[in-house]
Amino acid sequence: MMDLTQYIVAAPEMTLLGLICIVLVADLFIEQERRIITFWMALASLGATLCILLATSPDGRTEVFSGSYVSDGLSQVLKISVTGFVAVAFMYARDYLRANDLHKGEFYTLGLFGLLGMMIMISANSLLTMYLGLETLALSQYALVAFDRNNENSAESAMKYFVLGAIASGALLYGISWVYGVTGSIQFNEIAAALIDDPAMNSLPLWFGIAFIVVGIAFKFGAVPFHMWLPDVYHGARSPVTLYVASAPKIAAFALTIRILVDALGDLHDVWSGMIMVIAVLSLLLGNIVAIAQTNIKRMLAYSTIAHVGFILLAIYTGTEEGYAAGMFYTLTYVVAAAGAFGMVILLSRRGFEAESLRDFKGLNARSPWFALMMMFLMMSMAGIPPFIGFFGKLNAISAVLGSGYTGLAILMMLASVPGLYYYLKVIWYMYFEEPEDLAVLQANTDTRLVMSLNGVAVLALGIVPGWLWALCLAVLGG
Amino acid sequence: MVDNLLSVLIWLPIAGGVVLLAMGDGNDAASARANAMRWTALAVSVLTFVLSIGLYTGFDTTTAAMQFVERAPWIDAIDVWYYLGVDGFSAPLILLTTFITPLVVIAGWDVIKTRPAQYFAAFLILEGLMNGVFSALDGLLFYVFWEAMLVPMFLIIGVWGGERRVYATLKFFLYTFLGSVLMLVAFIYLYRLTGSFDMGRWMEVPVSLTAQKMIFIAFLLAFAIKVPMWPVHTWLPDAHVEAPTGGSVILAAILLKMGGYGFVRFSLPMVPDGSRYFAGMMIALSLIAVVYIGFVALMQKDMKKLIAYSSIAHMGFVTLGFFIVWHMFGESGAVLGVSGGMVQMVSHGLISGAMFLCVGVLYDRVHSRQISDYGGVANTMPVFAAFMVLFAMANAGLPGTSGFVGEFMVIIASFKANPWFAFFAAMTLVLGAAYTLWMIKRVVYGEVANDHVATLEDVNRREFIVLGILAFAVLLVGLWPAPLIDMMEVTIQHLVEQAGQTKY
After folding, report:
1. Which of A169, A386, B45, B405 suits B205 as a labelling partner, its CA being 20 to 30 A distant?
2. Is the separation of the CB atoms in A261 and A318 below 8 Å?
3. E strands of B42-131, at which residues?
4. Are the C-beta atoms of A382 and A334 separated by less than 8 Å?
């Protein structure tokens, strides 16, 4: 007799899946002029998912479906975050898509499918569940990037993303098979237990598998040297898609890392930490330095993402609970700022005009002091200037690294943020010190403006009261 | 009110700045709306100053303990407190800040044509943040104010500055940020050591000698760049030259003081052994600043640059006064040196601010900062010339002005420490007089040099008020420095004790 209560644990995902199917079918019967209904249905689906998530708050750790699915504090917080960020991405996207004749139901359904994939990744407790979620997310993203199919840039970047993504998935799967071959299990806690029982497993074949898994993780995060896709995809995709790709999936990538490297392979910290460190330091340096040379803001933000990933991975590298919590804090707060920054690109764009060059930000203060201020908040947050939330992300990450005794790394992290500051200041320079070249009035609708304002204020507000979020991260990763 | 006076001094100007930002700029700088904004900015800054007088009247000069303390939890998870308080070091500097800001607002009154609301808002927010830097007793809170302060200054130079403003302001921001990132690492190190960001505990906790040296270097980078000390001073002439007058005044009068404040608040009491280890180097750097930068100032053709270099030379006295402590530990000279440095900070704040305002007055009329574009200004602007000569004399250290007191105290103290220190330090009396008076000769005296100068109008009422108030303050501190020194005396004795201890 099957235990039906275990379905409660997966209720949010099942609800979401059901709602996606409804949206998918309903969208076929909605005329183009009334496509807005799809938007509202998608948002309603997200709302319903969120309600179910809150209603099924886990009490401690529950493993279901023969141990391949897990629900705990971490999954709860991360799922709520990704649902929220997908909603934000949709809200930013609506006006832009309508203005560019791209308002199609597929955007929302693909976005929702991606969310489903992310939620599965976050709750995965076995290598195969993880892979399943990852592919659901990845396939949705490939399609989303190619969403504007008449646009050559989009098509090209989707192709690159697909080919490279497929290789990375292959690497991950290959790594998974080696880990399974050595430990005889695909379930994370069983792998961990098997490694404790038989220390002899900790040998070359397992390391070989772990190396491939690290490659897969690095690819999903966009860490050097597996970062090549990131600038092209960010650049080639339409801005709302870039926003989507740059926000919630980073949180899912964090879950992927924690679930596999910590839940399953936590005792092998010595094995994987070296690889993570090299990747992280390279990302930090390359991202910050190459971003300086960019003239396209989407590419610049892409390289800045690479640098931020370096921070996240270095926090994870410490192998302490505090470090994992710092990584989570950093990921969540970075995504808030990233969503806002791409939101600003959307806000400045209008029909047939993509505000993706840094020059398009010239004189924004003269055109709209309020949004210039918001963009300044976002840039300062990314640069790690207090009192914005990005500073506390850096603080916690460096504190964790220093606490584990890596003084040199902590100094490197700080020094690397100095060139980083330069390109964020460049945006402020263009907004405040230059006269506008483009005198057009901002065309975005009220709701885009509202989301943008809330997003900008959020990085300041979170920076003034960062304590609760940090306490939350510590609590859910405190074992 | 007295219970949370410091909070008021921090948040009142910031709130005023936010109100100005919310009101926004009209299209016309002469409109009634723009006028209302100027008056709002003035009202807020004057009110802040009036309230800050309570800091002086309520100050207990018999204790080295923190006063006007406010303490509330901020981030429980990492034990960060909203912890404010002042002692004899910070109280005078807060008073200086609240005193200078209204003058800057008046000085920018009708000079700033573009976006006046944002201009005044930036200064008010900056004022609040600077008061926060001086009153924070929690390391992280200090760092937050310290870094946040860079943003309004970055905008002030970049938006309202001169031709090369973008270069200057980026250099300013990146330079100071580079300095302070390592300070943050040192803060986190101390936090991990003590489990708290409480600066009082950082002063007590034993730290190994190696760690003390490293921490000292991290602090040194942050504070030396801010002071600025030779050889990390190169951002200052650029920033000063390109900044609008108000920006130069705040930069010289207050921002530079934060470096000096950092040394007495952090380096000396928290890592006394590290400071002692590097004291010789610090004295050497200070003397190089005094002598070498003095010569550099002599060669300047741009008035603002000249005053900027003279600032660096004068700030050399401050660091000299602080770091000769170990050469005469246990003697009264130690206290004298530190007091001299502190008086010099306050006095330099007044004098350099006044000098930049004088240059601003000329610049607003002729739109040139080149010394060679002037000559015989005294003929057309007699009142202005009187002010400028007074401030120049003060800058050169004439007895009776505030410039004399601090320099004299430091020179006497350094004579006790080592006559050679005094010899080099005293060269400033020659060099300072040379570069300042030579500039005065070329700009103020002589025949009327050109048509521009011939048509100059003397200072208007607004400028007269600003310069008059500063002249009064310069003479007051020069003739009667006792209240200022009394305020700091006990705190400095306490610091000298802290600096003399061994804590590893």
Report:
1. A386
2. no
3. 67-75, 80-86
4. yes
Helical H segments across B227-271, by residue range: 235-242, 245-250, 256-262, 268-270
Does residue A439 surpass a pLDDT of 80? no
Q: For residue A119, what are its two tokens?
A: 């939620």
Smallest CA-to-CA distance from A173 within A159, A184, A160, A186 is with A186
The dihedral through the CA atoms of B453, B456, B460, B462 has a sign that is negative
The residues, ordered by sequence, that sit 6+ positions from A343 with a Cβ below 8 Å of its Cβ are A88, A92, A243, A448, A451, A452, A455
pLDDT above 80 (res A275): yes
Measured CA to CA in angstroms, residue A401 lies from A278, A386, A467 at distances of 15, 20, 19
- Whether A432 and B158 lie within 8 Å, measured CB to CB: yes
Give the model's pLDDT for residue A43.
Answer: 93
Beta bridge partners of B80: B75
Which 399-428 residues of chain A touch chain B by CB within 8 A? 399, 402-403, 407, 410-411, 414-415, 417-418, 421-422, 425, 428
Reduced to 3 DSSP states, what percent helix, strand and coil does chain A have, rounded to the nearest 5? 80, 5, 20
Amino acid identity of residue B481, one-letter, is P
Q: Which of B363, B124, B352 is nearest to B248 (CA)?
A: B352
Alpha carbon distances (Å) from A56 to A6, A123, B421: 12, 14, 74
Report the distance separating Cα B14 and Cα B149, nearest Å.
Answer: 12
Dihedral sign for Cα B70, B71, B74, B75, please.
positive
pLDDT score of A1 more than 60: no
pLDDT in tens, A96-106: 888 888 888 88
The CA distance from A452 to A441, in Å, is: 16
What is residue B27's predicted lDDT score, i.e. its pLDDT? 60
What is each CA distance from B470 to B317, B361, B458, in whole angstroms? 22, 14, 18
Tokens linked to B35? 């006028």
Which chain A residues are within 8 Å of B118, Cβ to Cβ? 365, 369
What mean pLDDT, rounded, does chain A reach? 89
Three-class secondary structure of residue A350 per DSSP: strand
φ and ψ at residue A392, rounded to 5 degrees:
-70, -30
Count of C-beta atoms within a 10 Å radius of residue B307: 30
- Residue B420: Cβ within 10 Å count: 11
Among the partner residues A387, A398, A403, nearest to B185 by beta-carbon distance:
A398
Q: Is the dihedral of CA A311, A316, A319, A321 positive or negative?
A: positive
CA dihedral of residues A386, A391, A392, A396 (deg, nearest 10)? -140
Predicted confidence at residue B128, as pLDDT, reads 93
pLDDT recorded at residue B331: 62
Question: What pLDDT sits at residue A79?
Answer: 93
Are A398 and B158 within 8 A, CB to CB?
A: no
* Contact predicate B64/B122, CB 8 Å: no
Low-confidence ranges of chain B (pLDDT < 70): 1-2, 26-30, 329-332
B148, A385: Cβ pair inside 8 Å?
yes
- Total domains, chain B: 1
pLDDT digits (tens, 9 = 90+) for A153-185: 889 999 999 999 999 999 999 999 999 999 988
Residue labelled with tokens 């050399």: B316
Q: Which residues of B touch A398 (CB under 8 A)?
A: 184-185, 188
ipTM for this model: 0.90
pLDDT mean over A362-386: 88
- Residue B371 · residue B392 · CB < 8 Å: no
DSSP state of B267: I
pLDDT of A368 reads: 84
Question: Sign of the CA dihedral A277, A278, A281, A286?
Answer: negative
Q: Closest Cα to residue A168, out of A223, A205, A123, A115?
A: A223
Cβ contact B196:B218 at 8 Å: no
Lowest mean pLDDT among A308-322, A430-444, B456-470: A430-444
